[in-house]
């Protein structure tokens, strides 16, 4: 029924192209998922294919969110939630809270049933984000949830959606704000991923496939719920795109905001570390300019510090609220540490996160749940290392003639120098970003044609590998599905294997079946307060 309804809707709203989303929900022999992304028929006009494909990505992102939200409503209607405590909302502990008394508020709501329906969809970690937006950080464990999403929710609920408070209630408006923010932000993530993919892969079709795969990724339920994954993905992918585009200042700001939304945002500083290594290498060994190398190192260090600032500031905020002004005997143990790090203590004390602490027999089902995403991650890294060992194991520092695409193209000093030759290289790089054509210097042209196997993918591969290792050895492993779901190399590699000669069709079925199964399973379990990643 859902599939038929959606197909009728798509026929009305998307007349200019054919998008077989029904293959995701109910694959049939007549639809080849390997060619799913290629079956989009673009209008024949004089405008660029990139513009048409970007429009297709936007439409696909919107459609995917509508499908997920429809599934949430369906499962919530047909099934009873495992835990019915979602609507419970006691008054804020702080006497200074600007929010009205909950009991008094509910008496004046015009549509209490609608408000209750929205509140009942606030489950799992969404409860924390909404509570923080409403009352601030009341308990020690709430500091595990970073403040960017709660701040955005609070701002939207007090401005644009404020007129809805008398209609559905304050908490329902907060929940609605979270849904609106994340579902709109998801569309921007998809667009940035497409633009980044065009620049890195130099292949519009591969970029389109990767972006549509992201639109229907296995962790889709979290991108349409009140979770921080969407904002984190937006500022991580967007920051990487700006970095690749040579806009280092904007990239620093976006990466810093990713660290303001999730703790692992600080790992994005690794991209600047990679850039700094290559620029320092260029300055010392190729240009023979030691002072320039010093400038590069100092500049890279300052950029990394800026990315770390939100994380450090939030830890200091927690220390000020929890530790200062308390007697030593009443202080939390982490307050007395030489380096008082609140986040690590909360993860270890309240959620049992730690190195190998999750390696227990009873956790085998969770390892199985995470095995598809971890297997895809491992395969993507091993495949790259196997086919490009001279780049992978040298971190891109190998030199011609062994590998002509070693300089990691977009991480050279071309964008930071002033002489005419380097400025021409920078203009060529910007032209590549603008229209996808290869105007790079001769030694980079090979890299520009290699798609997933190009040297420019290497820093993203390294970032993905570190995050995957953290998810497997340190975190609750079932979180890996959403923890890694934003990573561009996963979709680049999936797009790559779907076009492999001979086996591409089979892998197309597997990839789409995996995504569809997790979308259906996630929307069913998560929305009804059952455990899911």
From TrEMBL:
GO biological process per UniProt: GPI anchor biosynthetic process
GO MF annotations in UniProt: alpha-1,6-mannosyltransferase activity; GPI mannosyltransferase activity
This protein's pathway: Glycolipid biosynthesis; glycosylphosphatidylinositol-anchor biosynthesis
InterPro entries reported in the protein's UniProt record: PIG-V/Gpi18
Entry EC no(s): 2.4.1.-
Enzyme kind, highest EC tier: transferase
Location(s), subcellular: Endoplasmic reticulum membrane
Keyword field: Endoplasmic reticulum, Glycosyltransferase, GPI-anchor biosynthesis, Membrane, Transferase, Transmembrane, Transmembrane helix
PANTHER family linked to this entry: GPI MANNOSYLTRANSFERASE 2
Family, similarity comment: Belongs to the PIGV family.
Protein's UniProt name: GPI mannosyltransferase 2
Organism of origin: Prunus avium
């Amino acid at each position: 029924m859902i599939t038929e309804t959606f197909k009728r809707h798509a026929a009305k709203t998307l007349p200019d192209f054919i998008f077989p989303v029904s293959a995701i929900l109910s694959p049939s022999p007549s639809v080849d998922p390997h060619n799913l992304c290629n079956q989009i028929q673009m209008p024949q006009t004089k405008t660029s294919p990139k513009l048409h494909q970007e429009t297709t990505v936007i439409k696909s992102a919107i459609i995917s969110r509508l499908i997920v939200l429809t599934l949430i409503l369906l499962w919530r209607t047909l099934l009873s939630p495992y835990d019915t405590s979602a609507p419970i909302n006691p008054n804020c502990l702080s006497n200074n809270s600007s929010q009205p008394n909950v009991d008094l508020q509910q008496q004046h709501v015009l549509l209490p049933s609608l408000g209750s329906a929205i509140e009942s969809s606030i489950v799992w970690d969404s409860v924390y984000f909404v509570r923080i937006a409403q009352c601030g950080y009341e308990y020690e464990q709430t500091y595990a949830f970073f403040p960017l999403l709660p701040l955005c929710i609070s701002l939207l609920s007090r401005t644009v959606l404020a007129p809805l408070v008398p209609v559905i209630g304050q908490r329902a408006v907060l929940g609605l704000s979270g849904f609106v923010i994340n579902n709109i932000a998801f569309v921007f993530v998809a667009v940035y991923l497409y633009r980044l993919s065009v620049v890195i892969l130099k292949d519009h079709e591969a970029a389109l496939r990767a972006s549509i795969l992201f639109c229907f990724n296995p962790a889709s339920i979290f991108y349409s719920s009140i979770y921080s994954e969407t904002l984190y993905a937006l500022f991580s992918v967007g920051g990487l795109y700006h970095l690749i585009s040579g806009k280092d200042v904007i990239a620093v700001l976006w990466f810093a905001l990713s660290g303001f939304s999730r703790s692992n945002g600080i790992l994005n500083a690794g991209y600047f570390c990679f850039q700094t290594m290559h620029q320092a290498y260029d300055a010392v060994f190729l240009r023979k300019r030691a002072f320039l190398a010093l400038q590069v190192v100092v500049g890279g260090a300052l950029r990394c510090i800026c990315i770390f600032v939100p994380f450090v500031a939030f830890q200091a905020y927690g220390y000020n609220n929890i530790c200062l002004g308390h007697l030593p005997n009443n202080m939390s143990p982490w307050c007395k540490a030489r380096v008082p790090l609140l986040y690590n203590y909360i993860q270890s004390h309240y959620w049992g996160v730690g190195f190998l602490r999750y390696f227990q027999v009873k956790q085998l089902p969770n390892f199985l749940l995470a095995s598809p995403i971890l297997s895809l991650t491992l395969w993507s890294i091993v495949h790259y290392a196997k086919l490009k060992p001279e780049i992978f194991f040298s971190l891109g520092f190998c030199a011609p003639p062994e590998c002509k695409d070693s300089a990691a193209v977009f991480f050279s000093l071309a964008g930071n120098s002033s002489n005419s030759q380097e400025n021409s290289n920078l203009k060529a790089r910007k032209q590549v970003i603008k229209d996808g054509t290869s105007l790079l210097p001769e030694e980079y042209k090979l890299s520009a044609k290699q798609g997933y196997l190009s040297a420019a993918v290497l820093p993203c591969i390294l970032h993905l590998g570190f995050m995957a290792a953290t998810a497997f050895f340190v975190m609750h492993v079932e979180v890996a599905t959403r923890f890694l779901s934003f990573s561009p190399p996963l979709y680049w590699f999936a797009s790559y294997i779907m076009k492999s000669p001979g086996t591409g069709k089979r892998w197309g079925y597997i990839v789409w079946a995996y995504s569809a199964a997790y979308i259906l399973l996630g929307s069913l379990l998560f929305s009804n307060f059952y455990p899911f990643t």
